[in-house]
Amino acid sequence: MHERTPRTAHALRPLLFGWLPAIAWAGLIFAFSAQPNLRFVPDEGLDFVIRKAGHMGIFGILALLAWRAVATTSARRRPWAWALALAVLYAITDELHQGGVSGRHPSAVDVGIDATGALIAVVAVGLIRSRRSRRS
Fold first, then answer.
1. Which among 36, 41, 72, 80 has most CB atoms closer than 10 A?
2. 6 Cα distance to chain centroid
């Protein structure tokens, strides 16, 4: 039994360190989505822009964390594509979650904005990585 414990712990370490940041970030998104009438500035137009840019940034970060998790814990090809799919699926569940929060409502437009943010992040990092690998 003692022989298996270190191996099991060693096997779980990449899963923990790979997925914990993505799961924690998803939890943060969930917590913000549970806030009724979430406003950042008094001006309605500016608040709209800030919230939508925030959606893009937050889901961009989620996609990158998921990419890292998939790449470090699985042998799947194209981990960026899996990460993008996971971010979009989470965006959908996030909007469904908002449907049950007072003062919030689900929006297909927000899913599109979230997906766009995730796509921009994945493409940007993919281009940066591609340029770096060509220099080496």
1. 80
2. 31
**pTM of the complete model:** 0.86
What is the per-residue pLDDT across 75-127, written as a single tens digit (0 to 9) for each? 789 999 999 999 999 999 999 999 999 888 899 999 999 999 999 999 999 99
Q: Give the SS3 label for residue 59.
A: helix
Total domains, the chain: 1
DSSP, residue by residue, 20-50 = HHHHHHHHHHHHHHTSTT--SSSSHHHHHHH
Helix 108-135, helix 79-98: angle, nearest 10 = 160
Contacts of 47 (CB under 8 A, 6+ apart): 39, 40, 41
Separation of first and last alpha carbons in the chain: 46
Domain that holds residue 118: 4-135
Query: CA–CA separation, 131 vs 73, rounded Å?
Result: 25
Residue linked to tokens 């998939």: 70
